Amino acid sequence: MTITYHGRPRYVLLAAESWDAEQAVVERDTTQRDLEYQFLVEHMDGGLLVIDPELKITDASSAAAMILGRAPAALVGTPVADALPATTHSTLLSSLRHVLRSGEQAQFELTLDEENGTRLRVRAVPWVEGLALLVRVSYEGDEEARLAEQTALEKARAAHGRIEVIRLTVRGTVTMVEPEFARLVGLPRDRILGLRFVDLLAVRDRAIARDAIERVLSGRSEAEAFDTRLLCGGAEEIGARISIAPLASGYAVGGAVVIVTLDPGTEAA
Fold it and tell me: Given the DSSP bridges, would you call strands 8-12 and 106-113 parallel, antiparallel or unpaired?
């Protein structure tokens, strides 16, 4: 029943049973959202800080607390500037206020330990009432070492001259190929993109290759390798060793990387 005042709805009368049932639904939905939130927080990559419009922390994940060296309960109610590293606070607070005003995301880094090269990467995103800060620790030394190693591998591969790298989609079609490989097989690079990789091999080798690729893309094999012959310029064939490994995409396989090692004496044109 709706009670009006000057012709406008003012109050609604409900049976007690209907009110209790509605409240039960609300409580159940709230509990479910809380469980989903906790699951997300504990399984995300890095830590989470939730801050209000006054830039005070209202919630902190255990991972974020561990990164900052504080207990989660001790972080709640603390100004975010007091919880994060002391460097560049003015820039930090300015960035956070900009996110609050504009609704845009922002990313920045703070120094955790200058001597060890440890930095805190922070990503600020709009939240229901305030902001969420996704925090992760990065190590400059490790990143520099990985970059140096990758550069060295690329130089060594170029000097070797008989190794080509190809990337496949989850359907086994070519999504990335280098110009040298295209010249080797005598096809325009644009024509190779989108082709099934097995179509670049001698017909008699395709069944073995197809099975190996399917095992990798289905997640049943961590890596496969086999000998084959590449079709080159139509009828000509070039001996090669193929290895294939999956590309992870979250918890699923998002494609594969193929390494083609040509027989000694074979050079890309």
Answer: unpaired
Q: Is the pLDDT of residue 244 over 90?
A: yes
Ramachandran class of 149: left when φ > 0, alpha when ψ lies in -120 to 50, beta otherwise: alpha
What distance in Å separates the CA atoms of residue 236 and residue 202, rounded to the nearest whole number? 9
Cα–Cα–Cα angle for 101, 102, 108, rounded to 5 degrees:
95
> How far lies 43's CA from each of 31, 38, 40, 206, in Å?
18, 9, 5, 41
Torsion-angle region of 50 (φ positive above 0: left; ψ -120 to 50: alpha; else: beta): beta
Per-residue pLDDT tens for 90-147? 677 888 888 888 888 888 777 776 666 677 888 888 887 888 888 888 765 555 666 6
Least confident of 28-37, 115-124, 206-215: 28-37
Quote the CA–CA distance of 256 and 166 in Å, as a whole number: 8
Q: Between the CA atoms of 142, 148, 152 and 158, what dihedral angle is there, to the nearest 10 degrees?
A: 120
Of the candidates 269, 232, 238, 256, the one whose C-alpha atom is nearest the C-alpha of residue 176 is 256
What average pLDDT score do residues 11-29 get?
59
Which one is the CATH code of 160-262: 3.30.450.20, 3.40.50.1820, 3.20.20.150, 1.20.120.1810?
3.30.450.20
Tell me if 44-141 shares its fold with 160-262.
Answer: yes
pLDDT over 80 at 249, yes or no: no
- What is the torsion angle, in degrees rounded to the nearest 10, for the CA atoms of residue 147, residue 148, residue 150 and residue 154? 130
* Every domain of the chain and the residues it spans: 44-141, 160-262
CATH topology of domain 44-141: Beta-Lactamase (3.30.450)
